[in-house]
Amino acid sequence: MKAYLGVDIGSISTNIAIISEDAEVIESLYIRTLGQPIKAVQDGLRKISGMLTNNVEIIGVGTTGSARRLIGVMLNADLIKNEIIAHAVGAIHFYPDVQTVLEIGGQDSKIIIIRQGIVTDFAMNTVCAAGTGSFLDHQAQRLNIPIEEFGDFALRANSKVNIAGRCTVFAESDMIHKAQLGVGISEIINGLCEAIVRNYLNNVGKGKEILPPVIFQGGVAANKGVKRAFEKELGYEVIVPKYYDVMGAIGVAILAREEVKGKNTNFPGFEVSDIEFRTRSFECGGCPNNCEVIETLRENKVIDRYGDRCGKWEVL
Amino acid sequence: MATKIGIPRVLLYYKFFSFWKVFFEELRLEVVPSDETNREILKDSVNISVDEVCVPVKLIYGHTLNLRDKVDFLFIPRVISTEKRFTNCPKLLGLPDMVKESIDHLPTIIDTTIDYNRESLYKSMFKLGLRFTKNPFKINRAFEQAKRSSENHKGMEKTKLLNNNQQEGIKIAVLGHPYNIYDRFINGDLLQRLKRLNINVVTMDMVSKKILNRSIDSISRWIYWNYEREIYNSFYYFIKKVDGVINVISFSCGPDSLVGELLLRDAKRYEFPFLQLVIDEHTSETGIVTRLEAFVDMIKRKHKQRK
To answer: Strand runs (DSSP E) across B159-273, as ranges?
Structure first.
């Protein structure tokens, strides 16, 4: 069977999707990046190739996410695409009439406005990452609650508590303050979910026309409390798709399918997991900019260089 | 050895440099612009400056330091207005004082006031010229030459940009203060990146003065900040001629944030592709790259599906 591979490497999670020629999801995988994107992708590919039946042949590869270039070079990807388009394409694939995509990931959040199957507008969080997945993670850890159960706690809340969500530093001290006053943990978590939604709509969603169907994807979509808070705030049903946590990977796999039409893939195969890749960086020192240049090495041979402003290191 | 006059490569440098350069050279001065913004200049700027101002204003400090030991004079004019009835941002008005109060051992600062509401540019420049020569004819000549050169310069920029553009392909207008769109360091090399994505770029330099200065009927009060009014008018000029508009604004710039909001709303009303890029000293290149790529992809995919 011929298939396409999509890899979305974010700050917190690495997501891999393998789709068929008809864009059916064959397998998908969501693992933590743990600060080591190369290792995460190699581990992930090893794992997912073990899940596949023997006759699957990868004929196209796409990468997206904040480490898309690094991993794109490593996998010899046919396509390297930004995560906004990847997420939009993923959402449109499952819900052709989607008009709004809310996406909250580990470190960033975005909103994508779609009309008649075309992206017409988008926004990403700017200077501040308040209310994204890593903050929720941190709070779950602090409260000693598994992140998977965070949403259920929120749903059990009986009364409304206001948490200041503008900034995570204030949100945390507000949560602590409310706890010291004796407010229940469910109420506090629910307050936090509502604060995150408020903050998202006021920052990322500011001035955007949010129309249904609204799709909510990204890791945070697992949190039922945040989903319910969105529904309350927007007044529409918010749909969390089945593959909510790997939509970017699916999207970029679909884009790879468009890209390779009639061409052969450059993907070296799953054996790429056993090849040694590493990166190193140095300060150029050629001018006062002191650009930090990053090199990617495949078995001690430099295969990519970037980070320099003038482009003099780009020639390998 | 000729007397050297330094001009920091910040703010209105990006609008008036060719005028200033010719004027001073005609008066037999050697004009030394500071280096292009680099990491060291930015670091110095952020260290010296107060936090509240926008990054282009902060940069005056680093660029001043960059010139301090190389020149006899520093030209930091107090540009209050360059268009009758309109005014500039208060930080431009206080620029020479801000520098004098913050950096020691400076060369003599030439802080000529330029205010079209009170006197003509000719008069201001004439007074400035008297500091370097007693010959009024020489100043006259310098002024005329400078004026001619800056007009030529504008024409040249325009042809340069147009020649770079292919006939086919997507056209994007980049709006914003010249110091935001032409300082490659603080905007993450925006124009070059767009060109690498095969985009035809147009800027406000290609809009005639008549259009930049026309009155705005759609809002009840006029925009009395000179450059923001130009940005607003350019937006309406470009909206029917290009495939998308990118507006570059500096974080914590008051006028920009106001006009930016107006444009955001209008772009939405016209369903016109519009991207607002906010830059400050923390702006990461990744953030700019992702947004640019997504914006360009959005337009490209739209075109493809229409076909």
So the answer is: 171-176, 200-203, 244-250
Convert the pLDDT of each residue in B110-128 to its tens digit: 999 999 889 999 999 999 9
Mutation pick from B38, B190, B280, B297 vs chain A, by most beta carbons of A within 10 Å, is B297
Q: Is A300 helix (H, G, I), strand (E, B) or coil?
A: coil
User: Which residues from B are below 8 Å from A107, CB to CB?
Assistant: none
Per-window interface: B 53-92 vs A, CB < 8 A = none
**CATH topology agreement for domains A2-88+249-274 and A127-208+219-239:** yes
> Residue A140 and residue B172: Cα distance in Å, rounded?
45
d(CA A71, CA A67): 6
Residue A209 touches chain B, beta carbons under 8 Å: yes
Structure tokens at B277: 């890029």
Other beta carbons less than 10 A from residue A153's beta carbon: 23
Cβ separation B185–A122 shorter than 8 A:
no
Chains A, B: CB contacts under 8 A, how many? 66
Domain residue ranges of chain A, discontinuous segments joined by +: 2-88+249-274, 127-208+219-239, 277-315
- The larger pLDDT score, comparing residue B158 to residue B136, is at B136
> Which residues are bridge partners to B247 per DSSP?
B175, B276
Residue with tokens 């926004």: A123
Residue A6, Cβ density class (10 Å: 0-12 exposed, 13-18 middle, ≥19 buried): buried
Q: Tell me which chain B residue has its CA closest to the CA of residue A291.
A: B39
Residue A27, SS3 per DSSP: strand
pLDDT tens readout for residues A199-211: 899 888 888 899 9
The pLDDT tens digits of the residues spanning A56-96 come to 899 999 999 989 999 999 999 999 999 999 999 999 999 99
Give the orientation angle of helix B95-102 with respect to helix B55-68, to 10 degrees: 60
User: Does residue B40 belong to the interface with chain A, where contact is any CB pair within 8 Å?
Assistant: yes
Q: What are the angstrom distances between the C-alpha of B167 and each of B90, B171, B199, B201, B205? A: 42, 10, 11, 12, 19
Peptide bond into B33 cis (omega under 30): no
Thinking of the domain A2-88+249-274, which architecture would CATH place it in?
A: 2-Layer Sandwich (3.30)
Instruction: Please name the residue that has the structure tokens 């709070």.
Output: A139
A86 to chain B: closest CA residue: B294
Q: What is the CA radius of gyration of chain B?
A: 20
Residue of A83, A124, A288 with shortest CB distance to B40: A288
CATH of A127-208+219-239, one of 1.10.10.10, 1.10.540.10, 3.60.10.10, 3.30.420.40: 3.30.420.40
